[in-house]
Amino acid sequence: MKILMVNKFLYPNGGSETYMFKLGEYLTSLGHEVEYFGMEHPNRCVGNSADCYTENMDFHNSGGLKKIKLSLKTIYSGEAREKIGKVINDFKPDIVHLNNINFQLTPSIIYEIKKYNIPIVQTVHDVQMACPNHKMYIEEQESTCDKCLDGRYINCIKNKCLHNSTMKSVIAAAESYYYHGRNTYNLIDCFICPSQFMADTITRAGIEKSRTVVMHNFCEKQINLPKKDTSKKYVLYFGRLSKEKGVHTLIDVCRELENIHFVFAGTGPLEDLCRDVKNIDAVGFKSGDELKALIRNAMFSVSPSECYENCSMSIIESLSLGTAVIGANIGGTPELIAPGETGLIFESGNKASLKNAIQTLYNDPDVTTVMSDKCIEYSQNTIEKYTDKLLEIYSQQLRRENQLHV
Fold first, then answer.
1. Is 157 helix (H, G, I), strand (E, B) or coil?
2. Which of 57, 109, 154, 219 lies in the 20 to 30 Å Cα band around 90?
3. Residue 139 — pLDDT band, cuts 50, 70, 90?
């Protein structure tokens, strides 16, 4: 099968890129042909045989007319539409798999793909189709928001949701009005939603429910995990150190639990605040084997998010390494944790609830030991199993498309 993977960034930039690269690599190992389309960039690490990509959109180093031109291009990119057509003509894919496309590539490419009667599958990495700010979170107000779910994108402008900027928020709202008004997203044949929360959210935003499939993100298959090193008892947070992730709430709880040692791995705007708490060891950004060791040897990890998480890779990684998780009851997080078996759920933003959950697990190490085995047992959604399901979806859409054009 020939698969064209599409994503605005073609270099390591976040979770959607990691997902796409690993998936593409595994599909290639199975004998499928995989090519990629997105923006050109000095760090681009995947590509296509036509060597055709869109211009790198650098908003930070642009000014005047250039910035205005780029802003309008975030609504509809004629360049992206033209260039994906060239890639399709050269590669002739059987299926196109979209990932994150808004702003830099824009949904304009959907119209071009459909000209060739090629099935389109999209993995929904964020709530862009439901929220012009793609977060359902207003940073200035430090609160979740679902006011645009009924199509009233004017709320994005009223609240200046994009970087507290009226102009940026106007452009984001215009993009939502344009594509929802044309029912563009329902031209996509199948939406792969990493959580039921995401499936329900985009359905409320106007996506036909019959087009959604829930598939939690895959985890790395762990072989011969080392025994947990319990010589140092600590509770772990790893991820972005920011308010929407609930880190400020967790820091306040840490101050009240002076007898518990916490390790924070990550960077972000609250990094300095973490360093001011004596029982927090802020170790900075960690990755690879170093991060795996931190996760594996923790008593448990904490995911205190106060924004709508889709399918947290931090939780999936923690469980796959045999480390229980205390997670907030928001977004897709509760779908990943079996309360009492692989961790605990607490009320998002509630300090007393979070504090109680941490004390409950910390004071009963026998329970966390039992949970460790359960975590590994529950974490069986490997890339192999995930890809089996994905290939069946590809095949279903190809059969459907062929029947439509017999």
1. helix
2. 57
3. confident
Distant-in-sequence, close-in-space partners of 166: CB < 8 Å, separation ≥ 6: 157, 160
Model confidence at 62: pLDDT above 60: no
Pairing verdict, β 235-238 and 300-303: parallel
Question: How does DSSP classify residue 222?
Answer: P
Whose CA is closest to 192, among 207, 177, 176? 207
Rounded Cα gap, residues 287 and 296, in angstroms: 13
With the C-alpha atoms ordered 274, 277, 280, 283, is the resulting torsion angle positive or negative?
positive
DSSP secondary structure code for residue 128 in this structure: T
Locate all alpha helices (DSSP H) within 287-404, ordered by sequence. 288-297, 313-320, 351-362, 365-378, 383-404
At 189, the amino acid letter reads D
Q: What percent of the chain has pLDDT over 70?
A: 96
- Of 146, 123, 93, the C-alpha closest to 7 is 123
As a whole number of Å, the CA-based R_g of the chain is 22
123 near 32, Cβ under 8 Å?
no
HSE-CB for 216 with a 13 A CA cutoff: 21
**Which residue type, as a one-letter code, is found at position 337?**
I
Residue where the block lists tokens 């004596």? 278
Backbone angles phi, psi at 269, to 5 degrees: -65, -20
**Beta strand ranges found along 1-61 (DSSP E):** 2-6, 33-37
- pLDDT, tens only, 314-352: 999 999 999 999 999 999 999 999 999 999 999 999 999
Nearest to 234 by CA among 259, 271, 256, 267: 259
Q: Is 64 helix (H, G, I), strand (E, B) or coil?
A: helix
State the Cα–Cα distance between residues 197 and 331, nearest whole angstrom. Answer: 6
| Cα separation values, 10 from 132, 148, 312, 376, Å | 23, 30, 21, 32
- In sequence order, the β-bridge partners of residue 316 are none
Instruction: Provide the Cα torsion 84, 88, 90, 95; round to 10°.
Output: 140
Q: What is the pTM of this model?
A: 0.91
Q: Is 279 helix (H, G, I), strand (E, B) or coil?
A: coil
The per-residue DSSP string of 252-274 comes to: HHHHH-TTS-EEEE--STTHHHH
User: C-alpha angle with apex 150: 348 to 121, nearest 5 degrees?
Assistant: 85
The tens digit of pLDDT for each residue in 173-223 reads 999 999 999 999 999 999 999 999 999 999 999 999 999 999 999 987 777
CA distances in angstroms from 228 to 233, 279, 295, 377, 379, listed in the order given: 11, 22, 10, 16, 17
